[in-house]
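Support request from a user on the community tier.

User writes: "When I paste my structure tokens into the form, the page sometimes reloads and wipes my input. The last time it worked, I copied everything first. Here is what I submitted, just in case something in the input itself triggers the reload:"
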């Protein structure tokens, strides 16, 4: 996914009520690097790593 697609996807998923943790997993599974996930979701990289460590 390119940046525009990721931003659109996040916006649509938030409207549907998808949790932050679910978004992290979905984006990660689609090959979005962890540091970009943290930037797109405006959360710390540490939080992304913590969520994915339970994966």
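"...and here is what came back when it finally went through:"
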């Amino acid at each position: 996914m390119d940046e525009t697609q990721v931003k659109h996807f996040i916006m649509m998923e938030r409207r549907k009520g998808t949790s932050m943790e679910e978004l992290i997993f979905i984006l990660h599974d689609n090959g979005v690097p962890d540091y970009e996930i943290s930037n797109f979701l405006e959360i710390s990289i540490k939080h992304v790593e913590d969520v994915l460590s339970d994966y």
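Agent notes: The reload is a front-end session timeout and is unrelated to the input. The chain has four helices and no strands. The chain has one domain: 1-52. Escalated to web team.
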